[in-house]
Amino acid sequence: MSTEDSRRVYRLHSTLELPLEELHEHIAEASFPERVADVEITRRNNTLILKAVSEDDSVSKYTPTAQLKASVTENRVYEEDPDERRGSFGWGEEEEEEIESELVEFAAFKGDRETVLQNTLLQYEMFRVLEGIATVAEKGTLTAITERDGQLEATRIVDGEVRPADVEVVEGPRDRGSSSSGVNWRDNKFIS
Q1: From CA 16, how far away is CA 109, in angstroms rounded?
Q2: Cβ neighbours of residue 186 under 8 Å, at least 6 residues apart?
Q3: Hey, how many other C-beta atoms are within 10 angstroms of the C-beta on 134?
Q4: Which are the contacts of 134, defined by CB distance < 8 A and separation ≥ 6?
Q5: Residue at 16 is within a domain
Q6: Among residues of the chain, what percentage have pLDDT more than 90?
């Protein structure tokens, strides 16, 4: 069994958010998983693409490698929490100055596997890159089920902190017998 076959990402859900500047710093300083030489960051309007660059020279430059996709949003960040500051003033006291704030661009890795992690070549390795991003993101959650060397692994990272996670097998809607509520397109009398 090849290395690629024994490493897969089955499920992934992400709500990660971090300042764009912190993301760039993290990628610049990160050590990448085996088989990934580098991660290229490209921005198209409000979409950020982090693409794996393969160590394998035989991979054509036209072969799509795995990529992480994030949306870029602008949020106002305050030096102090405005609610806490309001609470510190007594009755009749006026708030003298405006709270210092700035607009900061954030990268938001939000969605399921197909939305956040695209293409199959080096997909598991780019999941590992996303795990690294999750540990530096102060806001959001990353949950996943992956396979490495025949073993299923559960991942759960909340607000930058790795949390315990288990893989649980449950009965899904497809497992409840053969009765299908969908349309049988092959034997449909309305389609000729």
Answers
A1: 5
A2: none
A3: 25
A4: 14, 16, 140, 142, 157, 160
A5: yes
A6: 61
- Total domains in the fold of the chain: 1
What's the Cα-to-Cα distance from 58 to each of 6, 61, 62, 97, 136, rounded to whole Å? 20, 9, 11, 61, 33
Query: Rounded to whole angstroms, how far apart are CA atoms 180 and 176?
Result: 10
pLDDT single digits (tens) 83-141: 655 555 555 555 556 778 899 999 999 999 899 999 999 999 999 999 999 999 989 99
Measure the CA angle with vertex 151, ends 11 and 112; round to 5°.
5
Task: Return d(Cα 1, Cα 35) in angstroms, integer.
Answer: 17
* Strand extents, DSSP E, the chain: 7-19, 36-44, 47-54, 67-78, 101-112, 117-118, 141-148, 151-158, 161-162
- Assess if residue 192 is contained within a domain: no
Is 130 within a domain? yes
With tokens 């939000």, the residue in question is: 110
Which domain does 12 fall in, by range?
A: 7-78+101-170
Assess if residue 178 is contained within a domain.
Answer: no
25 phi, psi to nearest 5 deg: -65, -45
Here the tokens at position 46 are: 């409000």
